[in-house]
TrEMBL record, chain A:
This is Alkanesulfonate monooxygenase. Residues 43-346 form the Luciferase-like domain. Gene3D superfamilies: Luciferase-like domain. Coiled coil: none annotated. One of its GO terms (biological process) is alkanesulfonate catabolic process. Keywords: Flavoprotein, FMN, Monooxygenase, Oxidoreductase. It comes from Nocardiopsis flavescens. One of its GO terms (molecular function) is alkanesulfonate monooxygenase activity. Transmembrane segments: none annotated. Pfam families: Bac_luciferase (PF00296). PANTHER family: ALKANESULFONATE MONOOXYGENASE, ALKANESULFONATE MONOOXYGENASE-RELATED.
Automatic annotation (TrEMBL), chain B:
Keywords: Flavoprotein, FMN, Monooxygenase, Oxidoreductase. SUPFAM superfamilies: Bacterial luciferase-like. It comes from Nocardiopsis flavescens. Residues 27-233 form the Luciferase-like domain. Pfam families: Bac_luciferase. Gene3D superfamilies: Luciferase-like domain (3.20.20.30). InterPro entries: Luciferase-like_dom, Luciferase-like_sf, SsuD_RutA_monooxygenase. This is Alkanesulfonate monooxygenase.
């Protein structure tokens, strides 16, 4: 069985460590001593933009044997399509997993854009199709389509995107999109469609995933919750005659000893913003509510968030992003990854803070211990 | 300051006229994308102001090309040509904010409006005519709005944004330079409202267009540009326009150009033509030239210095 290990490219700066909340890599924080990309040199900006650091992360992850990197997309982050276009020729084998909401692009133009990027990268474009959680963020993007309709739109988008890429001439008259006699130029049409990693937990999401996803992608959650989610996707896909594959996004704190790994988490937890901690404990945010739903009893210390051995649910306190991740020795983290593989997962998006250095560490120390996986091929 | 922007080659590689006896075992590796990569490097090295990544349905996609161009150079600006239908204005602005941040603000937008309805429908765009103009107006308003205001709310017929707007640092870079074109009253309205540069065709009257724009938007300094083809005459030339052609020529389509009108001449002759337009208020020259790589060097090594000489002479005369 082959397993693809992706890393993550931070689209919102990066922290120097998991115990320092400020993102001083990039320009999200005020400039000062210790900030890099851009940094001050002799009192003046050194001319390096954050993209230079992203390029270093991509190269570091590529050298560590990762298959590619996820570029997430939120209102406050840099944009994955633009960044992938900039970095296209700076790695050789490393894939760019572009997170995007299909509703924001025209499917014909998206096909042209992706096919050109496939040509520029030698076929290294991967999609993380997201459909958006709704609420104010969706209106921020200028998207008023209601939740379930958004999944219908995502579904139609992916249908048209594939149709215009592979059929010629292509005509479609749908609810959201209309194309008459469309086609990509032959050199573009000859490119492979990007693999699709599909995110979303609702019934509408799972339905759309069943139709279009190569991989159903979930954030890390406790084993039983993941197993339930996967079973639901399997069932739905079976009805459509498809066999889904599963991928998990999971943050990792791996050290030579388990104690050293927990030291990082404890220090981060103890230095977390008290207000954020209070909000988190009362479940006053969607992500926190979902995380807390997996946690029994009151949270008085960081180990209360360890819902299963080495599965810790407090990552969102230490950095922006999903709550659950793995904490432990190199061997323990590799064992947990093997357990996820046994659950049916055959692709991972791993991440660690800081992304540059941790890519090296995880690639060198953890991945070689994963037994259910082929070793990721070095290019 | 006069700017020369080179239109990047696009579309299938031109026939080389080698005939059926020719064999080429390289399997099409050297395609238009490679030519575009090499041309934008050449434009950077040769000192041109920028490149235009055309929205050619038979060529490479312009945003991908523009990103590659921006990343591969230090000075070169890249103008992505697109129709507003390609994405929402918020998403277009979001992509552009990243490109501006990471490239020192060197991105431009050449926004196309309308066009042949059948060609537009093939691109999944069914908005035509006056609606296309109104959509472009809304697109540019909303895109600039989310870039420059926070919170930004917009209620249009085509787009709506609620409490939008970029935060720091996405909002930090300059909004892309906007290039628009057209001769109709509606197109001139759009340019007067949104263009940084209004692009003419050869034969348009720059003074008249300037007056039209000034009348619509007094005090708003829209620069004038021109889209044209050129061919730089040189010793040993075995391609380009027929030998007897010189000066203004409308036959560039026969060489596969998208822009049929242009100038043929030595660098000094071309510089004189450019300078004559410059004296009429045209300061941006979006140039199509083939073969693009060689012409990029000719323009940079021969035309730009000749043009600079003429500008210096004028400055000296004025003293």
């Amino acid at each position: 069985m082959s397993v693809d290990f992706y890393w993550r490219i931070g689209m919102h700066g990066d922290q120097r460590s998991l115990t320092e909340r400020a993102a001083t890599r990039g320009d999200w924080e005020p400039g000062g001593p210790g900030r890099i990309a851009p940094a001050l040199r002799g009192g003046a900006p050194d001319g390096y933009a954050y993209v230079e650091h992203m390029a270093d992360v991509a190269r570091s992850a590529e050298a560590a044997g990762f298959y590619g990197g996820l570029m997430p997309s939120f209102p406050f982050t840099d944009d994955p399509w633009a960044t992938a276009g900039l970095l296209a020729r700076e790695t050789r084998g490393f894939r760019f997993m572009i997170a995007f909401q299909p509703g924001f692009l025209n499917p014909v133009h998206a096909a042209r854009m992706a096919a050109s990027l496939q040509r520029a990268t030698g076929g290294r474009v991967v999609y993380n199709v997201i459909t958006g959680g709704g609420g104010p963020a969706q209106l921020w993007w200028g998207d008023e389509v209601a939740h379930d309709d958004r999944y219908a739109r995502t579904s139609e988008f992916l249908h048209v995107h594939k149709g215009v890429w592979k059929e010629r001439p292509y005509t479609f008259d749908g609810r959201f999109y209309r194309v008459r006699d469309g086609a990509l130029p032959e050199a573009l049409a000859a490119q492979d469609l990007p693999e699709i990693y599909f995110s979303g937990s609702s019934a509408a999401a799972i339905d759309a995933a069943g139709r279009h996803a190569d991989h159903y992608l979930s954030w890390m959650e406790p084993t039983a919750a993941l197993a339930r989610k996967f079973a639901s996707v399997r069932e739905h896909s079976a009805a459509l005659g498809r066999t889904p594959r599963f991928a998990v996004r999971v943050d990792v704190v791996a050290r030579r000893t388990e104690r050293a790994a927990w030291d990082v988490v404890r220090t981060g937890f103890e230095s977390a913003d008290p207000a954020a901690l209070a909000r988190w404990r009362t479940g006053d945010s969607v992500g926190a509510a979902r995380s807390l739903s997996f946690i029994d009893g009151p949270v008085s210390g960081y180990r209360d968030l360890e819902v299963e051995p080495n599965v810790w649910g407090g990552f969102s306190l230490l950095r922006g992003g999903p709550a659950f991740g793995l904490v432990g020795s190199y061997a323990q983290v590799a064992e947990r990854i093997d357990e996820l593989i046994a659950l049916g997962v055959d692709a991972f998006i791993l991440a660690g803070v800081p992304h540059l250095e941790e890519a090296r560490r995880v690639g060198a120390e953890v991945l070689p211990l994963v037994t259910g996986a082929r070793r990721p091929a070095l290019v | 300051m006069t700017e020369v922007i080179l239109r990047l080659p696009s579309g299938p590689a031109p026939e080389r006229g080698l005939g059926p006896a020719a064999t080429d075992m390289r399997g099409g590796l050297y395609g238009p994308l490679e030519e575009a990569f090499q041309t934008w490097r050449a434009a950077e090295i040769a000192g041109l102001a920028g490149v235009l990544a055309p929205d050619d349905p038979d060529g490479e996609e312009p945003w991908t090309v523009a990103a590659g161009a921006l990343r591969s150079g230090r000075h070169l600006r890249a103008v992505a040509e697109f129709a507003p239908s390609f994405a929402t204005p918020v998403y277009a602005a979001k992509m552009s904010a990243t490109l501006q941040r990471f490239t020192g603000g060197r991105l431009g937008w050449k926004v196309t409006v309308g066009g042949d309805p059948a060609e537009r429908a093939a691109q999944g765009d069914t908005v035509t005519g006056a609606d296309a103009l109104r959509r472009a107006d809304e697109f540019l308003t909303a895109a600039r709005g989310v870039w420059q205001e926070r919170p930004f709310t917009f209620e249009g017929d085509f787009y709506r944004v609620l409490e939008g707007g970029f935060g720091h640092p996405l909002s930090g870079g300059p909004f892309p330079t906007v290039y628009l074109s057209g001769r109709t009253p509606g197109e001139l309205d759009l340019s007067a409202a949104h263009a940084d540069v209004h692009l003419l065709r050869l034969g348009d009257d720059p003074e008249a267009v300037r007056a039209e724009l000034d009348r619509r938007a007094p005090g708003r300094a829209v620069r004038l540009g021109v889209e044209l083809s050129v061919s730089v005459r040189h010793v040993g030339q075995d391609d380009g326009p027929p030998e007897e052609v010189s000066g203004r020529w409308g036959g560039f389509a026969s060489l596969g150009h998208t822009v049929p009108e242009g100038f043929v001449g030595t660098p000094a002759e071309l510089a004189a033509e450019f300078d004559a337009l410059r004296r009429r208020g045209v300061t941006v020259f979006v140039v199509e030239a083939r073969p693009a790589l060689a012409e990029a060097y000719r323009l940079g090594e021969h035309l730009l210095p000749a043009l600079a000489d003429l500008e210096r002479e004028e400055t000296a005369d004025a003293r």
